[in-house]
Amino acid sequence: MTPPPGAVPPVRHPEAPAPGEPLGTHYEHCFGCGGAQPHGLQLSARAGAGVTITAEFTVREAHQGAPGLAHGGVLATALDETLGSLHWLLRVIAVTGRLQTEFLRPVPVGTLLYLEAEVTAVHRRKIYCSATGRLGGPDGPVAVRADALFIEVKVDHFIDNGRPEEIRAAMADPDQVKRARAFEVNP
Ligand SMILES: CCCCC/C=C\C/C=C\C/C=C\C/C=C\CCCC(=O)SCCNC(=O)CCNC(=O)[C@H](O)C(C)(C)COP(=O)(O)OP(=O)(O)OC[C@H]1O[C@@H](n2cnc3c(N)ncnc32)[C@H](O)[C@@H]1OP(=O)(O)O
């Protein structure tokens, strides 16, 4: 998780969404951010300054692991989704290669988890980033945090590996194709 010698600071893409702008979903059926997943996290993210993101996720009953508490895997999903959203600002598509999570406080059902993430370094296709999740809002105590390594891929990664039904449907949806293109500098 430590960037190698030769890693460089991330560069915000000139056409990245402005600070404060909501990012919307990258895919309606995404378990992390899609509106078409009733039990999904429906996490909403906003661009920050530089190569940073903020996001919010409210823990619901469907997200429990123990009575009244969020499942750790669901919290890891919230961190992964927030970290993945950073790539709107670099305008590259990237997938999670490594995700190291720390669980510092339990997160009760009904809690708003306030997430902040930043890209710390880039080395060729490797993107190093970190995130924290706070209870209740930006001034709340840190409940979860993560360090991650994302690997840049082209849109073909999804076309070649995804199940044909969903890929066909996504490619037939002009909004989906536009969203995928918005990640790619050279589509
Ligand atoms: C028209 C249809 C469109 C549909 C798409 C729609 C939207 C898409 C747009 C946006 C999506 C983006 C954001 C979404 C937001 C959040 C979602 C959460 C993100 C996820 O939840 S995503 C799912 C989980 N994720 C995976 O499903 C990955 C499975 N995996 C693989 O698919 C391969 O494994 C891959 C591609 C990662 C690498 O394979 P590869 O062959 O391309 O690359 P290669 O091996 O050459 O590695 C190149 C350099 O990365 C280093 N490296 C590689 N892997 C590493 C690892 N794990 N640890 C440490 N270093 C690693 C190497 O050491 C080398 O380093 P070096 O350059 O220094 O030599």
TrEMBL record:
GO terms for biological process: fatty acid metabolic process. The lineage of its organism: Bacteria, Bacillati, Actinomycetota, Actinomycetes, Kitasatosporales. Residues 1-22 are annotated as: Disordered. It comes from the Bacteria. It catalyses: tetradecanoyl-CoA + H2O = tetradecanoate + CoA + H(+); octanoyl-CoA + H2O = octanoate + CoA + H(+); decanoyl-CoA + H2O = decanoate + CoA + H(+); (5Z,8Z,11Z,14Z)-eicosatetraenoyl-CoA + H2O = (5Z,8Z,11Z,14Z)-eicosatetraenoate + CoA + H(+). It comes from Streptomyces paludis. One of its GO terms (cellular component) is cytoplasm. Residues 68-134 form the Thioesterase domain. It is an enzyme of class 3 (hydrolase). Signal peptide: none annotated. InterPro entries: HotDog_dom_sf, THEM4/THEM5_acyl-CoA_thioest, Thioestr_dom. Its EC number is 3.1.2.2. GO terms for molecular function: hydrolase activity. It is a peripheral membrane protein. Belongs to the THEM4/THEM5 thioesterase family. Keywords: Apoptosis, Cell membrane, Cell projection, Cytoplasm, Fatty acid metabolism, Hydrolase, Lipid metabolism, Membrane, Transit peptide. This is Acyl-coenzyme A thioesterase THEM4. It is found in: Cell projection, Ruffle membrane; Cytoplasm; Membrane.
